[in-house]
Amino acid sequence: MLVALLPGDGIGPEVIVQAKRVLDAVCGDALRYEEAPVGGAAHKAEGHPLPPATLDLARRADAILFGAVGDPDCDGLERHLRPEQAILGLRKELTLFANLRPATLFPELADASALRPEVAKAIDMVIVRELNGDVYFGEKGMRTSASGRRQGYDVMSYDEDEVARIAHVGFQTARARRGKLCSVDKANVLETSQLWRDVVIEVAADYPDIELSHMYVDNAAMQLVRNPGQFDVIVTGNLFGDILSDQASMCAGSIGMLPSASLDADQKGLYEPIHGSAPDIAGQGKANPLATILSAAMMLRYSLGKAAEADRIEAAVAKALAAGHRTADLGGSVTTEQMGDAVLAAL
Ligand SMILES: NC(=O)c1ccc[n+]([C@@H]2O[C@H](COP(=O)([O-])OP(=O)(O)OC[C@H]3O[C@@H](n4cnc5c(N)ncnc54)[C@H](O)[C@@H]3O)[C@@H](O)[C@H]2O)c1
Ligand SMILES: CC(C)[C@H](C(=O)O)[C@@H](O)C(=O)O
Ligand SMILES: [Mg+2]
């Protein structure tokens, strides 16, 4: 089975190295790897954030392990050349519409959560984020307004098929868990959200066993902090899911802990930590590699049919944390590589 390794920028390569060490330990020769540049690194090397050969590798591979993109050196570039276009392009080109972002607190990290330990320990949820539509992919641009002022615009839109297909993923994810689905929208203000809510209710007819609720996104942001234990699965749009998942990560200890899977209709997937390239700590050995190591475990489980190996990795992460290993984001002083060592030792 072929895995595409796309390390990217900033801390991306640092965390990918650790995930690859763990994969080697668990899977040996069962996986083959090909690596390609992406993001700012690809722009510097080849003049484009998502070169054709990188996209081709992503298409050929059985699964993709992605680090992060984002490079301050690229700040002045036109939008289509910026590093972030690479991840947006991969999601769109490969129709990776279903983004699963599990937020679970490892019990050992109750002290690292931004919440009181007794509130934090109840977090055990999955955010199902739509990844191919919304304001991210609508018409956008700069124009001159009627009064002669500069005006930027980004059109937010969803069609009913896009909402229905992610709603099904939300219901099915809930069915495999505790049977509760909360659809998050802004239907009190936005037409896209009204359609979202209508379609989710229609799809719910196929899932009478699932308890469906609806919540406005502003309330959801508050409830995540007040009482995260009330959530089992959240299904939401691209923008709201982006924001709520960063917030959920701090409830679960750190943004350095949250993995993700971005899946197409056939479980082909791209796996990446939810965090970015973290230029503020890049090159300093401070990055927490666990989100990427846990993303590799998701890759084994969802795309490569290796659930037992995924279980082993997750257990090793828990053991490394239980043994007291903490990178700086978790209040410790362990380096990126030492955290990798700790997971390998636990394996
Ligand atoms: N999927 C992606 O590739 C992705 C995701 C988010 C942001 N980005 C990009 O990354 C760049 C930086 O964005 P940002 O600063 O807003 O978000 P970020 O997630 O990169 O960093 C936010 C904060 O969290 C910290 N952090 C992030 N990951 C960490 C880790 N593994 N261990 C310890 N600390 C960690 C950083 O040091 C920083 O203080 C931007 O160019 C942005 O567009 C890319
Ligand atoms: C880098 C950016 C385009 C991306 C997003 O907004 O989806 C990131 O924040 C994420 O969460 O993966
Ligand atoms: Mg994000």
From TrEMBL:
GO terms for biological process: L-leucine biosynthetic process. Its cofactor is Mn(2+); Mg(2+). GO terms for cellular component: cytosol. Pfam families: Iso_dh (PF00180). Its EC number is 1.1.1.85. Pathway: Amino-acid biosynthesis; L-leucine biosynthesis; L-leucine from 3-methyl-2-oxobutanoate: step 3/4. The record marks 136, 186 as: Important for catalysis. The keyword Methyltransferase does not apply. GO terms for molecular function: 3-isopropylmalate dehydrogenase activity; magnesium ion binding; NAD binding. It comes from the Bacteria. Keywords: Amino-acid biosynthesis, Branched-chain amino acid biosynthesis, Cytoplasm, Leucine biosynthesis, Magnesium, Manganese, Metal-binding, NAD, Oxidoreductase. It is an enzyme of class 1 (oxidoreductase). Residues 2-343 form the Isopropylmalate dehydrogenase-like domain. Catalyzes the oxidation of 3-carboxy-2-hydroxy-4-methylpentanoate (3-isopropylmalate) to 3-carboxy-4-methyl-2-oxopentanoate. The product decarboxylates to 4-methyl-2 oxopentanoate. This is 3-isopropylmalate dehydrogenase. The gene is leuB.
